[in-house]
Automatic annotation (TrEMBL), chain A:
Keywords in alphabetical order: Flavoprotein, FMN, Monooxygenase, Oxidoreductase
A Pfam family annotated for this UniProt entry: Bac_luciferase
Family per similarity comment: Belongs to the NtaA/SnaA/DszA monooxygenase family.
Phylogenetic lineage: Bacteria, Bacillati, Actinomycetota, Actinomycetes, Micromonosporales
Keyword Oxidoreductase assigned: yes
InterPro entries assigned: Diverse_substr_monoxygenases (IPR051260), Luciferase-like_dom (IPR011251), Luciferase-like_sf (IPR036661), NTA_MOA (IPR016215)
Domain Luciferase-like: 31-315
Annotated source species: Phytohabitans maris
Gene3D superfamilies: Luciferase-like domain
Top-rank taxon: Bacteria
Protein name: LLM class flavin-dependent oxidoreductase
TrEMBL record, chain B:
PANTHER family membership: ALKANESULFONATE MONOOXYGENASE-RELATED, C2H2 FINGER DOMAIN TRANSCRIPTION FACTOR (EUROFUNG)-RELATED
EC id: 1.14.-.-
Annotated keywords: Flavoprotein, FMN, Monooxygenase, Oxidoreductase
Annotated ranges, domain Luciferase-like: 25-391
SUPFAM superfamilies attached to this UniProt entry: Bacterial luciferase-like
Alphabetical list of NCBIfam families matching this protein: FMN_nitrolo
UniProt-recorded Gene Ontology molecular function terms: monooxygenase activity
UniProt-listed Pfam families: Bac_luciferase (PF00296)
Protein's UniProt name: NtaA/DmoA family FMN-dependent monooxygenase
Superkingdom of this protein's organism: Bacteria
Length: 386, 450
């Protein structure tokens, strides 16, 4: 697919699906959520349909039905595995699909995340990305005990958290560039393994960090693995515009899709998130969602638009929004495997029939699939740049 | 009773043991190299694969050190990827207790254990120096004296997190709609001098309960820490006398913690060179030592002890007549080994004596004192030495460090391992699925109460 031919397509993987009762569906595999085989099957399913990438959700705390921290519920999925490690575990089992784990910036070390995503890029030969997550959750702060986040976070703290995230991404990007591509020389004549003039201290200093560098990992295959983030409001929009290659937004209709697409000059590429419940007829989809809602005891609500209907109807919506300026979609399957396979075996063939989705992978890296060129290294001298 | 030998494969590191100048030397960073070595280790029925850690590029004389391999991957990420291309091999990573927090390390190890079906191992190291700290937002805040305190508290906190979920907490019963069998699975609250944390851990109980714990400190405090907490020690003492002394010393410390001698394995690092005959192996070993220690490397090595710039000296000439500068090592940064020299004046005096007695140049002296391989010989000779050292309680096995990536273990796997198997001292096939089972360690939930 050339970028003019249709939207990019990704799926967001989270547990048994995004509906909290999804794990109770007859075809769900809730006892396997913490096994490698489960995740390998899901990602292979997405790859068989030539999707651009999968994201893998994560957080530094247990899931909760409340915004303010853990609850006492036992009827929903609780517990998860580290998303970067899930991505690494499936990397050798896949060949084309992008792997975009979530990793939190608020309580972690940029040096660790930089080397983890760079290493995922090596293990997947150029298919790594990163979904940056900011944590404003007080209970997650207590898991680290290094700073306080109040129960009710005000606008100043939100701004602070995203300023910190901006610096964090800058540090990570510098670390990825801290080795020039040709730094390793293995020059037997002079006995030097590296040309140290091509290794760079990043010397980042701000109110949040002082980081020296260079990274311990050479520059990853993509140079800069795509950095992505979900954004709903002004402050995160600003963060996404300045720091990311791809932003997930949550428009509710085609007009708000057009509006949000116009807010950004690429980069970042603007994606829209949708939670999807898909069946052969609209009423079957609605009934299934109702059944899930009844199990959970409440109608499902989401930050993103919730789509209920057939794959063909979803294709109409996606192509409409795409025409309005949305570059791609991150679909959140309501229940796995049902809605995942409805995407891969229903929606994708439908889009292909309309000439709006690739039939084969046409690039070997995630940047390639997204139409992003491999960036020059910020530290290399002009003739060294690729 | 004949002891069974444990063997591990150490991915060649960023030091001069690793020969990168050899035409057979492959990438130190591409995943294919890690996969290749891990598959060889698994084919040879090794207990585990091992990765070291170093979080700052080494420097000498204020410049990034460029004579050895530079660059390595992120430990957790590579181990998780290796879990996809191996079935039984243990996956052990070195992760320090200084530039991390228990919550994140515990969830990474618990995740790795799930994703590998119970094969995770953690070599807990204390690296604390301010030089490494410059790569971290928290900086190098830890005093040297405090490092084992933090390590021990870190490990005990991580254990609380691993134990905060019990087997069976995930009911996942669709019929009744009960996912969690108790509402507070993962709840914890921990407070000590270093950590004041509370909440809910978010990774369910891993197959091994807790990952296997290795420890690699050598000081008295380090040994005590190992005796109290570790399942295995990665040691430096691979010869008969030093090995026996170390072995006896650490095993003697166990009863104090209610532990038996089988609950802490001693696994020294070991290098090896094989040949068709012993003489052939000796010759190959000599060539490899010269590859490992170039003239430049010899000078740099001497500087690490002398703690001064010796670039004006000729590696083929005699040792410097000036004495080492005593005190904080300012020449070499990011090397644990600089603290192993002991008294630099005394060591320099010994090296000079040795050089004079044997008429050695700087390069020859450095080769003599630093790079003699642990096992050199025909496969039968090496198999016999390994078995002998284990049966005579100099160790419980070895962590083998090949000098070549990625094929450096092939010859050992093909020639020495079958001989050990013939002797009945090394498994012919895996009998268990988890790293604990390979090492003969009880699952923490099924350990008889101490
Ligand atoms: C065989 C061996 C391997 C080691 N590997 C590492 C390593 O990979 N990374 C690290 O930071 N420290 C490593 N160390 C250092 C130790 O973990 C420990 O921090 C150091 O020996 C200082 O502690 P001590 O004074 O008790 O010996 C290693 C030590 C030994 C003996």
């Amino acid at each position: 697919m050339t970028s003019g031919r249709g939207p990019h397509l990704a799926v967001a993987l989270d547990g048994a699906g995004w509906h909290p009762a999804a794990w109770r569906e007859p075809d769900a595999r809730p006892a396997e959520l913490f096994t490698a085989g489960y995740w390998a099957d899901l990602v292979r399913e997405a790859e068989a349909a030539t999707l651009d990438f999968v994201t893998i959700e994560d957080a530094l705390g247990v899931q909760a039905a409340r915004a303010d921290g853990p609850d006492e519920r036992v009827d929903q999925v609780r517990g998860r595995l580290d998303a970067v490690l899930i991505a690494a575990r499936v990397a050798p089992l896949t060949r084309h699909i992008g792997l975009v784990p979530t990793a939190t910036v608020t309580h972690t070390e940029p040096f660790h995340i930089a080397k983890a995503i760079a290493t995922l890029d090596f293990a997947s030969t150029g298919r790594a990305g990163w979904r940056v997550q900011v944590s404003g959750r007080p209970h997650e702060a207590k898991h680290f005990g290094r700073r306080e986040i109040p129960d009710r976070i005000g606008p100043d703290l939100v701004t602070d958290l995203f300023d910190e995230a901006t610096d964090y991404v800058e540090v990570v990007r510098r670390l990825w560039d801290s080795w020039e591509d040709d730094a390793e020389i293995r020059d037997a004549a002079t006995g030097r393994f590296v040309d140290r003039d091509k290794l760079h201290y990043v010397d980042f200093e701000s109110g949040w960090f002082r980081i020296r560098g260079p990274s311990i990992v050479p520059r990853p295959p993509q140079g800069q693995p795509p950095v992505t983030a979900l954004a709903h409001t002004e402050v995160p929009y600003r963060f996404a515009a300045g720091a990311t290659d791809l932003v997930y937004t949550t428009p509710s209709d085609v007009d708000s899709a057009a509006l949000v697409a116009r807010r950004f000059d690429a980069p970042p590429l603007v994606f829209a998130d949708l939670v999807v419940f898909l069946d052969g007829t609209p009423s079957r989809a609605t009934d299934r969602k109702k059944r899930l809602d009844a199990w959970d005891g409440a109608p499902y609500a989401s930050d993103a638009a919730v789509f209920t209907g057939t794959p063909a109807q979803l294709a109409d919506v996606l192509l409409d929004w795409h025409a309005a300026g949305i570059a791609g979609f991150r679909l959140r399957p309501g229940a796995i495997p049902h809605d995942l396979t409805a995407i891969t075996r229903g929606l994708v063939p439908e889009l292909r029939r309309r000439g709006a989705f690739r039939r084969e992978y046409e690039a070997t890296t995630l940047r390639g699939l997204l139409g992003l060129p491999r960036p020059a290294n910020r530290y290399s001298t002009v003739e060294g740049a690729r | 009773m004949t002891k069974q030998i444990h063997l591990a494969a150490h991915f060649p590191g960023v030091n001069n043991t690793t020969v990168w100048s050899d035409p057979r030397s492959g990438s130190q960073i591409e995943f294919a190299s890690f996969e290749r070595l891990a598959r060889t280790a698994e084919r040879a029925k090794f207990d585990f694969f091992f990765l070291a850690e170093g979080l700052r590029l080494r420097e000498q004389n204020g410049l990034i050190y460029d004579l050895d391999v530079v660059g390595r991957p992120d430990t957790f990420t590579v181990l998780a990827a290796l879990a996809a291309v191996t079935d039984r091999l243990g996956l052990t990573g070195t992760i320090n207790s200084t530039f991390n927090e228990p919550y994140e390390v515990a969830r990474q190890f618990a995740s790795l254990d799930h994703l590998s079906g119970g094969r995770a191992g953690w070599n807990v190291v204390t690296s604390w120096d301010a030089f490494t700290g410059e790569n971290f937002r928290r900086g190098g805040f830890l005093r040297q004296e405090d490092r084992y305190l933090r390590a021990e508290l870190f490990l005990r906190t991580a254990w609380e997190l691993f134990d905060s979920w019990r087997e069976g907490d995930v009911a996942a019963d669709k019929e009744s709609g009960v996912f969690l069998s108790r509402p507070d699975a993962g709840a914890f609250a921990h407070r000590d001098e270093h950590f004041d944390i509370a909440g809910r851990f978010n990774v369910p109980r891993a197959p091994q309960g807790r990952p296997v714990i290795l420890q690699a400190g050598d000081s008295d405090k380090g040994r005590e820490f190992a005796a109290a907490t570790a399942d295995a020690i990665f040691s430096r003492h691979g010869t008969l006398e030093a090995g026996q002394a170390f072995y006896a010393d650490v095993k003697r410390r166990l009863p104090r913690y209610g532990r038996t001698k089988d609950e802490l394995l001693v696994l020294p690092a070991a290098t090896f060179v094989l040949g068709d005959t012993d003489a052939d192996a000796q010759e190959r070993a000599r060539v490899i030592r010269h590859q490992q220690v170039s003239g430049q490397t010899a000078i740099r090595h001497l500087e690490q002890l002398w703690n001064r710039d010796l670039s004006a000296y000729d590696p083929d000439g005699p040792l410097p007549d000036v004495d080492p500068i005593v005190g904080e090592n300012t020449i070499a940064k990011g090397r644990a080994s600089t603290r192993m020299f002991g008294d630099p004046l005394e060591t320099a005096r010994r090296w000079r004596e040795l050089a004079e007695a044997k008429r050695l140049s700087i390069r020859e002296l450095v080769i003599e004192v630093t790079t003699r391989q642990t096992f050199i010989g025909a496969p039968a000779t090496v198999a016999e030495s390994i078995d002998d050292l284990v049966q005579r309680d100099a160790s419980d096995g070895f962590i083998l460090v090949p000098h070549l990536v990625p094929d450096g273990l092939d010859e050992f796997a093909d020639t020495v391992v079958p001989l050990l198997q013939e002797r009945g001292v090394f498994r012919a096939d895996y009998t268990g699925a988890t790293l604990r089972e390979h090492l003969g360690l009880a699952h923490p939930d099924r350990r008889p109460a101490a």
